[in-house]
Design goal:
Length: about 120
Amino acid sequence: MLVVFHSKPAAEVLMFAHHALPILKAAGKDYTDTLPERGVITYEQLPQAIAGIERAMGMDTDPEYLETDDDNDDKEHPIAQPVSFRQRAFPLLAMLRLSLKDKSDVTWEPASTWY
């Protein structure tokens, strides 16, 4: 399922539910195996959610992400590289930070079929 996150001060964030689930778990949502179709992170929950995602991003020790040698021509093409937790979580984390400044909730729902 494709879900879209909404918040007044930020652009929509679109993501597959199975990719959003670990991010929302890090944000403190107590989901087991599946993401509910609709949900909310209230303004009051935002500081805890942001801290949880930042903590999980800090534990993301993907060696490809940490590599600093940009001159290595033997690297795998970027399209073939896996996407790390840190990379997946960043757009939603940015939305949460903007929502905290604006004192807005963040909601999600199934994406419409035209996406």
